[in-house]
Amino acid sequence: MRFLHTGDWHLGKVFHEVSLIEDQREFLRQVCEELESARKGGNPYSALLVPGDVYDRAVPPAEATQLLSRFLNTVHSSFPELHLFFIAGNHDSAGRLSFARELLDSQNIHICTDTSHYTEPVVLENGGEAVCVYQLPFLYPLSISSDDEKLLRTQQEQYEYALSRILQVHDKSYSGIPAVLCAHLFTAKSAVGSSERSFVGTAEMVDTDVFNGFTYCALGHIHKCQPCGSEKRVYYSGSPLAYDFGDNPDTFMLSVTVNGTDVPSVQKIPVRPLHRLAVLEGAFSDFYGASADKKLIEKYRDCYVKISATDTSVVQGAMSLLRTNFPLCLSFVPKIYASASSSGSVQERKSAIESKNSCQIFEQFLSDAYGSSGFEEELPAEEKQCVQDEKKLFSELSKGLSW
Ligand SMILES: [Mn+2]
């Protein structure tokens, strides 16, 4: 039996003030395309597994709910036999994601947002094969209560308990049938990108041993596609699009073929993003002006771009100039800002600031921005006058304020 695993859609995400809804629409079109090509190839999918973070926010924008609504409608009318599984991730509002859940359940769309029936599987049957699918939404402290009323506080304690309960019930009622799990959590040793809403420390991490006994675990939460543990039964599909410049720009869906309780065969299907994310480094003049690199501009014109510039002086109106060559340039960070804000320890910077009055801090800001403390001497007369006027104005303003 074949499953398509893709999670962390984050529908409605806004990235550097740009809505990604068209990028997400294109991704969902590719999901339909994959379902269609599998059917045409005579090896159709039985289910789509979406383990959480369906939406980016608890209150998603209307265009995101419309996108999901249309997707469900398209998929259900084109593939009425396909089962769809959605669980609530830490970005979703369980209450809102569960809208029309009971009604949708009768249409093969299974939305799980609470733990009231987590030991009850949806049993899929296809050509004499059966698979039990269990769903567990993101667990908050005390989401799961144990039979002996022992408090389960950490994620490890909760998953250990909940998954062993599932397997107990499974072994009793569905012995020999493969058990597939959909869950949204942070496993220890997984490689994290930079767009997850992460936790501090390791208290919220769960050891991969808790999944022993499941044939396949479709996990969400980590945005990088990867297997977890040594047995290759537990996978993160990762997010379908890179959601931060620190994320890997190559993203995937997973095609999972479950063959009895053997280790399933898992194949990565690349997602072709509408716009790739790219981080470019170089001098401002490489990206704009007479000596700009034409090939670079051609290559990255359609990408969401972050430019880290090596320039040591301020470039006036840099973003609007850059956008003439890179219309989707979302971030421009000259090196001087990056180094000025990060040099020295927090304590050093704090005491350096505390020893100065506000006018001195303003002067420091100007010299950081212009790249050196003697910058004024090198300025043309007109700009020099301008800086002096700014200092004077700041000094007068700061007298009237208590800092
Ligand atoms: Mn996520």
TrEMBL record:
<comment type="function">
    <text>SbcCD cleaves DNA hairpin structures. These structures can inhibit DNA replication and are intermediates in certain DNA recombination reactions. The complex acts as a 3'-&gt;5' double strand exonuclease that can open hairpins. It also has a 5' single-strand endonuclease activity.</text>
</comment>
<keyword id="KW-0233">DNA recombination</keyword>
<keyword id="KW-0255">Endonuclease</keyword>
<dbReference type="InterPro" id="IPR029052">
    <property type="entry name" value="Metallo-depent_PP-like"/>
</dbReference>
<dbReference type="GO" id="GO:0004519">
    <property type="term" value="F:endonuclease activity"/>
</dbReference>
<dbReference type="InterPro" id="IPR041796">
    <property type="entry name" value="Mre11_N"/>
</dbReference>
<keyword id="KW-0269">Exonuclease</keyword>
<protein>
    <recommendedName>
        <fullName>Nuclease SbcCD subunit D</fullName>
    </recommendedName>
</protein>
<dbReference type="InterPro" id="IPR050535">
    <property type="entry name" value="DNA_Repair-Maintenance_Comp"/>
</dbReference>
<comment type="subunit">
    <text>Heterodimer of SbcC and SbcD.</text>
</comment>
<dbReference type="GO" id="GO:0006310">
    <property type="term" value="P:DNA recombination"/>
</dbReference>
<comment type="similarity">
    <text>Belongs to the SbcD family.</text>
</comment>
<dbReference type="InterPro" id="IPR004593">
    <property type="entry name" value="SbcD"/>
</dbReference>
<dbReference type="GO" id="GO:0008408">
    <property type="term" value="F:3'-5' exonuclease activity"/>
</dbReference>
<feature type="domain" description="Calcineurin-like phosphoesterase">
    <location>
        <begin position="1"/>
        <end position="225"/>
    </location>
</feature>
<keyword id="KW-0235">DNA replication</keyword>
<dbReference type="GO" id="GO:0006260">
    <property type="term" value="P:DNA replication"/>
</dbReference>
<keyword id="KW-0540">Nuclease</keyword>
<keyword id="KW-0378">Hydrolase</keyword>
<dbReference type="Pfam" id="PF00149">
    <property type="entry name" value="Metallophos"/>
</dbReference>
<dbReference type="InterPro" id="IPR004843">
    <property type="entry name" value="Calcineurin-like_PHP"/>
</dbReference>
